[in-house]
Structure formats: C-alpha cells, structure tokens
Amino acid sequence: MEIRVAVVGAGSWGTTVAHLICAHAPTILWAREEAVAEQIDREHRNLRYLPDHPLHADLRATSSMAEAVGGADLVVMGVPSHGFRSTMEQVAEHLRPWVPVISLTKGLEQSTRLRMSQVVAEVAPGHPVGVLTGPNLAKEILAGHAAATVVAMADVSMAEALQPIFGADNLRVYTNTDVVGAEMGGALKNVIAIASGIADGIGASDNTRAAVITRGLAELTRLGVAMGGEPMTFAGLAGMGDLIATCISPQSRNRHVGEQLGRGRSLEDVVAEMDMVAEGVKAAPVAVELAEEHGVEMPIARSVASVCAGEQTAIEAYRSLLARSRRPEVYGLDPGGR
Ligand SMILES: NC(=O)C1=CN([C@@H]2O[C@H](COP(=O)(O)OP(=O)(O)OC[C@H]3O[C@@H](n4cnc5c(N)ncnc54)[C@H](OP(=O)(O)O)[C@@H]3O)[C@@H](O)[C@H]2O)C=CC1
Ligand SMILES: O=C(CO)COP(=O)(O)O
C-alpha cells in the first residue's frame, strides 16, 4: 500500500527530509508562507534555506494545511520548538484518526518544559508518536554524504515500517524504542554545542573541545536518564553521535552561536543576523530548570544559560567550570551523579 506523507515545515531540515521521503512515497511539504510554497512547487528548490540543492521533481509544496495533512497517512513535523504547538494545533484540525506523527524537532517547549512528542500527545491524543533524530546536518545529507539516523517509537513494528520511508542510499535508519532518550539527546546536544562553540570563540584547544564534548555527554546523559531515558541511547547516534557532529561542525548553527559569544558578541546581535534557528539558546534555561527539578547537576548547561543571559562572560564561564570542586569521573548512569 502506498503511504502518503505530509512534512510540516519548509526550513532546512523539513525540506531535506521531504526530498528524501519523496523518493519512496508521494510527499507534500507545508510551508507557512504561500510565496515559499509556490516557489518550491514551481522551481523544485528552496531558495530561502537550501538555494544550492535541487529537490526531488515529484515533491509538492503547499501553504494549505488541509491540503498537506488532510490525505496524509504519516505526518512529519519539522518546525522549530517555539512554533511547534501552534503548528501542531493546525495539523490536528486535519489529521485523520491513528495517523502517526514523527517529530524532527530538537528542542524543548519553553513554557511547559515538554518534549515535542509530549506536545503531540497533548494536542492530538491517541496518535502514535515518534522522533527522527541523529547526526544529520541537512546540507551534508543533501550533498549525498553518508549518514545514519534513528527513528524512535514505543511501537517497534511501527518504527520498522518507517525505516524504508526515511532511508536513502546515503542515509541508514536505525530503530529505537526509547523516545525519551532519543528526544532528550537531540535537544540537549544543542546546548553543549553552544559550549563547544564558545570554546572555539575564545581560542581554546582541541583538548578543551574534547573535554566539553565528553563532560557534556556525561551531563546530558545524567538528565536524560533521570527523565526516563535509557543510558545506552545517549551512547548512540541520538546522543554521542549528534553531539559530536554538532559540536565540531562549522555548519552547526548552535556551535556558531557559541563561537560568536566566545568572541565577546552579545546574544541579541548574533541571533539578529541569523536567518535560521539555534534551538540550544532556548533549551539551555529549560535544561537548567529540568536539572533542578530532577536533582542532577548540569554545570556546562548552566554556564551556557548564564552566558546567553549575559550574566557571565565566556571566559568567566570557562574559569568557573575549571574551578569547580574536585570529584571522580562518574558517568551519567546514576541520576544523582555529579
Ligand atoms: N538543519 C538541520 O541540519 C537539522 C535541524 N533539525 C531540527 O529541525 C528543526 C527545524 O530546523 P530547521 O529546518 O533547520 O530550521 P530553519 O531555521 O532552517 O527553518 C525554520 C522553519 O520553521 C519555520 N518557522 C519558524 N518559526 C515558526 C513558527 N513560529 N511557526 C511555524 N513555523 C515556523 C520557518 O518558516 P519561515 O521561513 O516562514 O520563517 C522555516 O520553515 C529544529 O528543531 C532543528 O533543531 C534536526 C536535524 C538537522
Ligand atoms: O541537529 C543538527 C545536526 O544533527 C543541526 O544542528 P544545528 O541546529 O546546530 O545546525
């Protein structure tokens, strides 16, 4: 049976995933601006976000949610976390019963501290929900470089059914039943990527970056496990894999924000000149709140939140991380670990 797919959100990643899925299934991409939808539909390019990449000739685009979602057997959500709930509410008006919803979004809702799959469950109860996440820089995948990703759903048979839909010659898709872990890995690695960028911006060394990535993995694992994620998920593609890609890649928007902060620029200036989203900026204070709620320490996330809020300079933040009291190198398997 042919599956019809709606991808909601025509930014860099939503467009890339729609392009990939289109090779296997009829796909409609929803853009919130009519002009953007028309341009993609007409020219098979997304001039705003991915001007250099031709898109699949069969990919349709629309700004009508009814047209995109009304006939869909699978809905894929690719809008940033700050617009996720309101967009999902529009989706829910047209969603047919039992249609699965997969989130591509790597962020946390600021007001509620919810993961995106929890937002889906609130707005559209009863629909199977999952996430697609991993080290997946959109432009690299569109350029044909090999990558791997994870589709995480509680129902493994449903995740297995989606593997060929999301897969491509250059994209290998694994399954995982740990939705919490996969989602928390994706959201929290953005915060650590800002810290890694800050290290680059202040002229720190590769040793520093390795320390940030490794200790960042320890603290994101600590929180993720305390919230119910499986420890091994954080050692996989949705955790360590995505953390490495985002912390080292010049393409990462979150790492870029950190680098500019490290050079002494204000967050307002850096964000104002970006035309794409850096989820870690909004996720950092949420991570700090969640860490407090769950009684775990996240010193790097706390430093990132504090530099973003202008409470500390990048140099002060790094000095205070180094000055913390001595302790053993305990990894995140124990939620109370430090
Ligand atoms: N880019 C990547 O490589 C990857 C990104 N992701 C994740 O995917 C999600 C989307 O990122 P990405 O596609 O890169 O983002 P972009 O910044 O490239 O695009 C953002 C998209 O979201 C739309 N949008 C912005 N604000 C709202 C809103 N309030 N309501 C509805 N739509 C809105 C934009 O529309 P408009 O153009 O009209 O403003 C645009 O289509 C993020 O959570 C990101 O972390 C995950 C894996 C890889
Ligand atoms: O999630 C990503 C790669 O897996 C994209 O990271 P950035 O949002 O930092 O560009």
UniProtKB/TrEMBL annotation:
NAD(+) binds at residues 9-14, 138, 253. Keywords: Cytoplasm, Lipid biosynthesis, Lipid metabolism, NAD, NADP, Nucleotide-binding, Oxidoreductase, Phospholipid biosynthesis, Phospholipid metabolism. Residues 178-317 form the Glycerol-3-phosphate dehydrogenase NAD-dependent C-terminal domain. InterPro entries: 6-PGluconate_DH-like_C_sf, 6PGD_dom2, G3P_DH_NAD-dep, G3P_DH_NAD-dep_C, G3P_DH_NAD-dep_N, NAD(P)-bd_dom_sf. It is found in: Cytoplasm. It catalyses: sn-glycerol 3-phosphate + NAD(+) = dihydroxyacetone phosphate + NADH + H(+); sn-glycerol 3-phosphate + NADP(+) = dihydroxyacetone phosphate + NADPH + H(+). Catalyzes the reduction of the glycolytic intermediate dihydroxyacetone phosphate (DHAP) to sn-glycerol 3-phosphate (G3P), the key precursor for phospholipid synthesis. Coiled coil: none annotated. GO terms for cellular component: cytosol. One of its GO terms (molecular function) is glycerol-3-phosphate dehydrogenase (NADP+) activity. GO terms for biological process: carbohydrate metabolic process; glycerol-3-phosphate biosynthetic process; glycerol-3-phosphate catabolic process; glycerophospholipid metabolic process; phospholipid biosynthetic process. Pathway: Membrane lipid metabolism; glycerophospholipid metabolism. Residues 5-158 form the Glycerol-3-phosphate dehydrogenase NAD-dependent N-terminal domain. Its EC number is 1.1.1.94. The active site is at 189 (proton acceptor). The keyword Protein transport does not apply. This is Glycerol-3-phosphate dehydrogenase [NAD(P)+]. Sn-glycerol 3-phosphate binds at residues 106, 134, 189, 242, 252-254. NADPH binds at residues 12-13, 32, 49, 106, 138, 253, 277, 279. Substrate binds at residues 106, 253-254.
